[in-house]
Amino acid sequence: MKFRNIFWGMILIVLGLLFTLENLNVIDFDWYNLWRLWPVVLVLWGISILPAKNIVKSILVIIVLGASVYYMLENNVEWENSRSYSYQFYDDDDNSYRFEQDFTIPMNDSVKYAKLEMDVAASSFLLFEDNTDLVDFDKSGSNMDYKYTVMQQDSTAEMKIFLEDDFTVNHRKNNTIDMGVSTFPVWNMSFDVGAAKADFDLSEIKISDLDIEGGAASIDVKLGDNYYYTKVDIESGASSIKIKIPEESGCDLRISSVLSGKNINGFEKIDHGHYQTSNYESAKNKIDIEVETAVSSYSIIRY
User: Fold this and answer.
1) How far apart are CA 154 and CA 113, in angstroms?
2) Could you tell me the end-to-end alpha-carbon distance of the chain, in angstroms, rounded to an integer?
């Protein structure tokens, strides 16, 4: 029997069993955290090209897959018959319960420019427009506390939102952050999303700069046609990246990747890793995007 048949067969069996157990409500599996195991693909690839007998390579694959499954079950799975439903209670000394934190940074009419730096550190993050406050922050999940600083000089407000020092996030707690920001100022935003699933709906927000750093992350960005020039920089590891840009905006795209799948319809190739929309020079508003990624899939969608 050919090794590649054994190789793919074992992988499909493992994935099929996990899907089946979840569909039967035996386990509750966080598939997003599967991204954290992306280096295993390189290990399995290396095993497949070793100059060794098929039986040796099969044993190695079984060991690697067994260790990976053990890790996923130990760190990412909650068994249905042992899941705690007591999240409505709050206890500062017990991380098994659900905690909430919210705060607002009021909008000052003198603020024309806003700068935001933030460590996301949540399994799910949503950013959207808010016409009431400069920042409206709402977090739920494990008992991690965010702190923030605000400094205003003339017409510019600078904000930093960060976690307490030495705090480790437990991704099994389903930490979520919903955050709204004002549509009035022009924003310069910088985010460290780590291994989060981040959804940035910026379609109604004026953005001059957007900087996103992620590890094994899922990053979804929707930009609007609200500012004359927007610069976007995304740097990530094993990630899924989706960027939506309005058709009215001209877009210049530069991509540096190792092992990635791409979907960039509507762009013309200028050079290796360099693409532009046909309306870039004539468009009133322009968006420049630079993406540096490793083992990832990315899509640039015009809407």
Assistant:
1) 10
2) 49
Tens digits of residue pLDDT in 71-118 = 665 554 444 444 433 333 344 444 445 578 999 999 999 999 999 999
The DSSP line for the chain is --HHHHHHHHHHHHHHHHHHHHHTTSEEE-GGGGGGGTHHHHHHHHHHTSSS-HHHHHHHHHHHHHHHHHHHHHHTEEEGGG----TTS--TT-TTS-EEEEEEE---TT--EEEEEEE--SSEEEEEE-SS-SEEEEEEESS--EEEEEEEETTEEEEEEEEPTT----GGG--EEEEEE-SSSEEEEEEEEET-EEEEEETTSEEEEEEEEESS-EEEEEE-S-SSEEEEEEE-SS-EEEEEE-TTSEEEEEEEEEEEEEE-TT-EEEETTEEE-TTTTT-SSEEEEEEEEEEEEEEEEE-
Residue pointed to by tokens 């960005």: 221
What integer pLDDT is reported at residue 218 of this predicted model? 86
Alpha carbon distance 283, 198 (integer Å): 29
pTM exceeding the 0.90 threshold for the entire prediction:
no
CB atoms within 10 A of CB 121: 22
CA distance 301 to 251: 11
- Distance from the Cα of residue 123 to its chain's centroid: 9
Vertex 151, ends 146 and 154: CA angle to 5°?
155
The DSSP letter of residue 171 is G
Cα dihedral 193/272/266/128 (nearest 10): 10
